[in-house]
Write a structure and sequence with these properties.
It is a single chain. With 96 residues, the protein is mainly beta. The protein has one domain. Helices cover 10% and strands 31% of the residues.
C-alpha cells in the first residue's frame, strides 16, 4: 500500500454467511485494508467496520462493502485484486 503512495488507515471486516477452508481455523471472514492518499477525511464518521454478506464467487468482494466504501470515501477510488470493473472506481486485477 505504501509503495503505491497510500497510507494505511484501518481495516474493514466482511463476515461471511458460511465458513471456508483453513488449517488452524475455518475462515468465515475477510479483512479489507483501507488506505488514503493525502489528508482526506472521511465523509461520514458513523460507519461500522463490519458487514455481513453472503459469499459468492471465490474472492469476490460483496456489493455491500462497496456501498460502505462509497458512503465514506472520496473519489477517485481504486480496488486492488478486482474481479470486475465498477463505475466511479479504478480496478486492478487479473480478471478485469
Amino acid at each position: 500500500m505504501g509503495h503505491w503512495g497510500f497510507r494505511y488507515v484501518t481495516n474493514f471486516c466482511w463476515a461471511k454467511d458460511r465458513f471456508g477452508i483453513g488449517y488452524y481455523f475455518r475462515g468465515q471472514h475477510e479483512l479489507c485494508l483501507f488506505g488514503v492518499k493525502g489528508n482526506l477525511k472521511p465523509i461520514h464518521r458513523n460507519i461500522p467496520s463490519l458487514v455481513y454478506a453472503k459469499r459468492t464467487k471465490h474472492s469476490k468482494k460483496p456489493e455491500e462493502s462497496f456501498e460502505v466504501f462509497d458512503k465514506m470515501s472520496h473519489e477517485p477510488r481504486i480496488e486492488l485484486f478486482a474481479r470486475t470493473k465498477r463505475e466511479g472506481w479504478d480496478s486492478w486485477g487479473n480478471e478485469v
